[in-house]
């Protein structure tokens, strides 16, 4: 891993990032410039096909930029060894079905692989971290179930527990609430707030639900057509004008008396 000459920064910096899946394809991501600072919960929002998942794939080095770069704490993402990157950033993927007969407990324990020597048994610390991650995501009661027997929402919680067990400073989630019932949506988002507050994690999460983003994220990145349309503090980004420009629909914005945040109601003109 090559260190840059600059002073150490606790940031992920995305510089002029452009990406296309093949040489002849048009750009899916276009000149993205953004800095993620530690200690925040970032919500990435935007319409279908605006490039949110493609952006995340670049952040995790699943694909490589065509132009620009991504620096993680002053080191180019492309220079990280896979195992070192797995100790820095964990991912909760979108809608993954787990087609195997592994037990829930074993899948969550896979989050500890970057820290374990080959063929070594789990340490007491691994077991404690895995247990804590399962309790936080409400998976402990079905830890001995086979994962291919789980409902979509249960599977999503197991994958979240596995990412938490990876114990990284950065946690990236792609639509983590998509298949969860309303109670588990709230519980998952509250567990992310706890991870930020008590374990010093920085969260970057793709969300479709603007009200969930408004309630739990203190920073928003709003994408449209492969570009960052606007980014910054949640209430400064989630304005009627900006939301209309991006989603092509109107929004009524109310005060949410329960939590002091805003509440967003979409509506059409006719
Ligand atoms: N490997 C690929 N080959 C061709 N097109 C791709 C590829 N990956 C993404 N795209 C296209 O890039 C665009 C952005 O896709 P992406 O999945 O990043 O959007 P998204 O904002 O995450 O969408 P959604 O909200 O529907 O999940 C889409 O039009 C998609 O079809």
Describe it.
By secondary structure, the chain is of the alpha/beta class. The chain has two domains: 11-88 and 168-267, P-loop containing nucleotide triphosphate hydrolases (Rossmann fold); 96-167, no CATH class. It is built from nine helices and twelve strands. The longest helix is centred in the last third of the chain and has 18 residues, at 182-199. The protein is globular and about 60 Å long. 36% of the residues are buried. The structure holds adenosine-5'-triphosphate. Adenosine-5'-triphosphate (ATP) binds at residues 21, 28, 46, 48-54.
Task: Supply the key terms.
alpha/beta, 4-stranded antiparallel β-sheet, binds adenosine-5'-triphosphate, 9 helices, 6-stranded mixed β-sheet, Rossmann fold, 27% strand, single chain, disordered N terminus, 270 residues, globular, 2 domains
């Amino acid at each position: 891993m090559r260190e840059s000459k600059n002073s150490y920064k606790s940031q992920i910096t995305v510089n002029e990032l452009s990406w296309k899946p093949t040489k002849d394809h048009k750009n899916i991501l276009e000149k993205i410039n953004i800095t993620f600072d530690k200690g925040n919960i970032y919500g990435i929002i935007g319409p279908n096909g605006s490039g949110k998942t493609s952006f995340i794939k670049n952040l995790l080095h699943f694909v490589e930029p065509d132009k620009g770069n991504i620096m993680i704490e002053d080191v180019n993402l492309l220079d990280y060894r896979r195992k070192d990157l797995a100790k820095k950033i964990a991912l909760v993927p979108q809608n993954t079905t787990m087609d195997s007969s592994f037990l829930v407990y074993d899948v969550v324990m896979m989050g500890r692989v970057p820290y374990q020597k080959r063929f070594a048994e789990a340490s007491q610390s691994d077991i404690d971290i895995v247990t804590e991650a399962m309790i936080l995501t409400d998976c402990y009661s079905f830890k001995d179930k086979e994962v291919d027997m789980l409902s979509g929402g249960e599977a999503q919680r197991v994958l979240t527990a596995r990412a938490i067990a990876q114990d990284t400073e950065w946690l990236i989630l792609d639509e983590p609430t998509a298949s969860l019932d309303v109670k588990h949506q709230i519980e998952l988002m509250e567990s992310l707030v706890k991870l930020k507050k008590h374990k010093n994690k920085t969260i970057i999460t793709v969300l479709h639900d603007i009200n969930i983003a408004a309630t739990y994220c203190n920073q928003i990145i709003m994408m449209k057509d492969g570009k960052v349309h606007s980014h910054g503090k949640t209430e400064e980004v989630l304005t009627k004008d900006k939301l209309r420009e991006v989603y092509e629909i109107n929004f009524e914005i109310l005060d949410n008396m329960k939590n002091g945040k805003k509440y967003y109601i979409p509506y059409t003109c006719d």
